[in-house]
Design goal:
single chain, alpha/beta, 10-stranded mixed β-sheet, two-stranded parallel ribbon, 45% helix, globular, binds NADP nicotinamide-adenine-dinucleotide phosphate, binds magnesium ion
């Protein structure tokens, strides 16, 4: 069988710990035998980030802008313990934060559904993709403890010195106050990424805020989305057979529980933080969540939603067998390969990516799975495999599928 050729390289961002180990096995067993893999490799593993003073992360983000599609392994975001463990020169920023800032993108998280692992919400039949705005609001707020009676105002001083004031509250006693902001540029990028991703994946888009209470702040988000939709996307959505739907956040939360899924739910920063954890845990497993960063200019970076699975890595280093689930990392690769195939018009690459996804799901549905899934499946007679044997089982399934 001839290997599938690629024309443009994928930006490959390697990572840390157990996911770095899985990364190598996935490439060796599930990709290299079938595809003449063309990648531009960036080692975002912590030791090399430290060696390059994190320049490698910046370079990988620039390469992503250049080529348009990246696939990323999970990476360590250093804290004090990691600085000590890896003898780091400093406490580097989160690579995901650096890449997100460079691409000005929005992160879309979707669950991978398999028979036998049922969502807690029984009527969810299709994935719900959560899009979280990643800038501002309470995450970049200024706060003050108010010690006692007095007046708090918002003051805007224009460049010419003119002031506009808005009373927050006249305090009769102690309390707290918070001032937060967002930017038209960021809200616009967020809206654009959401509309583009809805079109690219042919799914309805929901957006919700609390505009009835927040008549200027949240209302502005609603207006930015609506104006962009009316001006740029109404016709395109109609042609694609999808809809844009705005509602109040509390109404959205109530409705989400009653629908089948199969749509994108765009959330402001805080709502997205809270709702993505609810949606992912209700779908079953963090190891089955994929994540893609989409920039408003249409650049894509695919990854798993989980971290480097540190606890498993130490067992692996101690020579113990681990049953770490590689599914979300496999889907990061298939997402990236399919997107590359779409952009470069290589239908075989798209077909291969879809077949590998199906082989992965079929393998689980046949009863072969990693421990995390075995613990939550309704299936009986399951075979719990270690990571390597599970990847081997997927290889057998994809090989049979490609020969059929
Ligand atoms: P984690 O890697 O997400 O793992 C937390 C726990 O979830 C694991 O101990 C494991 O539970 C379970 N789990 C997650 N993924 C799994 C998989 N593929 N298969 C089986 N079980 C899985 O989070 P962490 O261990 O708290 O964080 C480790 C490092 O990841 C941190 O340094 C953090 O900075 C980094 N991180 C990176 C990203 C990213 O690059 N996108 C995201 C989050 C965290 P059991 O131990 O019970 O089996
Ligand atoms: Mg959270």
């Amino acid at each position: 069988m001839d290997k599938i050729r690629m024309t443009t390289p994928l930006v490959e961002m390697d990572g840390d710990e157990m996911t770095r180990v899985l990364w190598k096995w996935i490439k060796e067993e599930l990709l290299l035998p079938f595809v003449e893999l063309k990648t531009e490799y960036y080692d975002l593993g912590l030791p090399y980030r430290d060696e390059t003073d994190d320049q490698v992360t910046i370079d990988s983000a620039e390469a992503t802008k250049k080529y348009g599609v990246a696939v990323k392994c999970a990476t360590i975001t250093p804290n004090a313990a990691r600085v000590e463990e890896y003898h780091l020169k400093k406490m580097y920023k989160s690579p995901n934060g650096t890449i997100r800032a460079a691409l000005d993108g929005t992160v879309f998280r979707s669950p991978i559904l398999v028979d036998g692992i049922e969502p807690v919400v029984t009527n969810w039949k299709k994935p719900i993709t959560l899009a979280r705005h990643a800038y501002g609001d309470v995450y970049k707020a200024s706060e003050m403890r108010i010690p006692g009676a007095g007046k708090v105002e918002l003051v805007y001083t224009a460049e010419d010195g003119t002031e506009t004031r808005e009373l927050v509250h006249t305090f009769a006693g102690p309390g707290v106050v918070q001032g937060m902001h967002n930017l038209d540029s960021s809200i616009t990028s967020f809206a654009k990424s959401c509309f583009e991703y809805a079109l690219a994946t042919k799914q309805d888009l929901w957006f919700a805020t609390k505009d009835t209470i927040s008549k200027k702040y949240d209302h502005h988000f609603k207006d930015v989305f609506q104006e962009m939709y009316d001006e740029e996307y109404k016709e395109k959505f109609k042609e694609a057979g999808i809809t844009y739907f705005y509602t109040l956040i509390d109404d959205a939360v109530a409705r989400v529980m009653k629908v089948e899924g199969g749509f994108i739910w765009a959330c402001k920063n805080y709502d997205g933080d809270v709702m993505s954890d609810m949606v992912s845990s209700a779908f079953g497993s963090l190891a089955m969540m994929t994540s893609v960063l989409v920039s408003p200019s249409g650049v894509y970076e695919y990854e798993a939603a989980h971290g480097t699975v540190q606890r498993h890595y130490y067992k692996y280093l101690a020579g113990e067998e681990t049953s770490t689930n590689p599914v979300a990392t496999i889907f990061a690769w298939t997402g990236a390969l399919a997107k590359r195939g779409e952009l470069d018009e290589i239908p075989e690459l798209i077909t291969f990516a879809k077949k590998l996804e199906k082989a992965t799901i079929d393998t689980i549905e046949s009863g072969k799975m990693t421990k995390d899934l075995a613990l939550i499946t309704k299936k009986e007679n399951v075979t719990v495999l270690n990571s390597q044997d599970f990847i081997q089982a997927i290889r057998a399934t994809i090989t049979a599928a490609l020969e059929a």
